[in-house]
Amino acid sequence: MTITEAEITAGARAIASALRVDPDTVIPFHPPLDGWPYAELHDGKVHYLVRERADVDLIAVYTDLDDFLYQLAEEATSGLARDWELAHRTGSVEDPDFDPRIAWVAKQLQLLNTVNPAWAERFRATVETRFSGLGLHDVDRHPVDS
């Protein structure tokens, strides 16, 4: 399948609209500041890159538009969810029972569900293996309505 810039742009705009953020923050098509990912299209494939100083590293090559848009949504919602967790933190990092990842992941799932419920389920299926020691039972009962 050949992926076009128009398809990526439309998908990024849909993600940005659902999250109420600037579409340029979802995916730039030019090298932004060092350390930030960007996309280039080569032969209908998305090359997801990151530039650090003079080096450019390939993160991944995508041949499936949905997989690439999922990656963009996952990254966008992760940043928003971490910011939300910090603003709504209810515990102390000195407390050994406090795990800020619970609120972060709960909020990220909520945001991903807003963008695409199938992507939220896809992310949900990775939570317990991706976040060591974090249980879905904790994430599911954490309030994220604010």
The share of residues in extended strands comes to 15-25%
What's the story with the biggest beta sheet?
3 strands, antiparallel
Could you tell me the number of beta strands? 3
State mean pLDDT (0 to 100 scale): 91
In helices, the fraction of residues equals: 40-55%
- Report strand order across the widest sheet: 1-2-3
Spans of at least 5 consecutive residues whose pLDDT stays below 50 are none
Q: Write down the Rg.
A: 16 Å
* End-to-end Cα distance: 40 Å
Organism: Streptomyces lasiicapitis
Domain Immunity protein: 43-126
Protein name: Immunity protein 63 domain-containing protein
Description:
The protein has 146 residues and is an alpha+beta fold. The protein is 51% helix and 15% strand. A hairpin with a 2-residue loop joins strand 1 and strand 2. The radius of gyration is 16 Å and the shape is globular. The termini are far apart. The relative contact order is 0.12. The model has no long low-confidence stretch (mean pLDDT 91).
